[in-house]
Amino acid sequence: MPPVQRLLIGLFALLVPTLALASGETAALQAIDLTDHTVGYLALLIFVIAYALVMGEEFLHLRKSKPVIIAAGLIWCLIAYAYIQQGQPDLAGEAVRHTLLEYAELMLFLLVAMTYINALEERRVFDALRAWLIRKGFGFRALFWMTGTLAFFISPIADNLTTALLMCAVVMAVGGDNRTFVTLSCINIVVAANAGGAFSPFGDITTLMVWQKGVLDFFTFFKLFVPSVVNYLVPALIMSFAVPNLKPEAQEANTHMKRGARRILVLFILTIATAVSFHNFLHLPPVIGMLTGLGYLQIFGYFLRKTHHSWHKRNEDRAALVGDMTPFDVFNKVARAEWDTLLFFYGVVLCVGGLGQIGYLSFASEVMYEQWGPTLANVAVGGLSAIVDNIPVMFAVLTMMPEMNETQWLLVTLMAGVGGSLLSIGSAAGVALMGQARGTYTFFAHLEWTPAIALGFLASIVVHFWING
Description:
Structural class: mainly alpha
Strand content: under 5%
Number of strands: 0
Order of helices and strands: HHHHHHHHHHHHHHHHHHHHHHHH
Number of helices: 24
Distance between the termini: 63 Å
């Protein structure tokens, strides 16, 4: 047999297990019910302790990824031990590989999106937008509406955390010592960023999970646009009456974007279009399109680096003005990705996958979706998202995969996205702004306006059923 042919056969032999895993054949393996076993109780206790540490991140200053990563390892060790005792030593390994594959797709997708956001931030695109808003000298009420509206429309493309931090920086730069304006604007930004992320597959990790799972098509998410608008507008209208009717002095703030900023923004939009096209027309996972889009940025980064010195010689004054003194390096942007979030996501997916393997998610699905009914269960998911991060909640729902129609899947997607607005600790945007506007935007300041936010929450449910039911 020729060497080339032997090599090809060898490569095919290596690929067969991977292809079988990707096709989801491991999902067909019969799990052992451990819900009444000591292993099941210990796994549940480990997860609860780990998540208590996650919820106390603000006070403990312990990064949220650390406890869930350890919990994931311990839970799967317990499962593997139980399976060995039952005479099925290979089953736990197959199950964890299946869960790990789901995480890998989402992690790589998010990594590309974060790289683009970091590149746009380094090219000073967000700084230029902030400077423009400050320079215009809007009144407090106008700025309240502008920052909220911008947060609503930017978060479907960028993540809600980046969007909220950007808008909060504008509010704090203009608001100064006016605590009432800063507090109300921060609450408004959190609600707007979470609502805006709910109607886009790119706006939140939960919507991305639903899209990548193939439960809803890309354009189906936009049916949630009007309910999301209602979710934002109802509390915003109520809070706007409490915003001081003052006009601060316009500030001189002029920020120039670095070379290539607009072209990177175009490449980001092209990358999103590539991911959507790969998924809709070629039936490939969206992550393949996103990684292809990362290649766009790498090629453009190569062009910027190779032409940097010649451009610098021709434009010394502009280079000094914008601080564009060093060549663009795309791998610096990859390194600056929010690795704590990505590793937290790993821990959560593996923990929830482990609890599903034990049998707890099947039990929860039976209680919630068969006894309560899908509507009440999905609304409960929204309420739970105000206390527990929406990522494990949505991953649990997707692991259960209850029988629901499109309207109910849209409802649970909406609820997981906007439920975190009910409390300041319910979303990454709220937690981040409590740190950025420390002492002004607090848990209790947000809690004071929770009834207004809850009114928008309930109104969005009514509007959703009215339009999509």
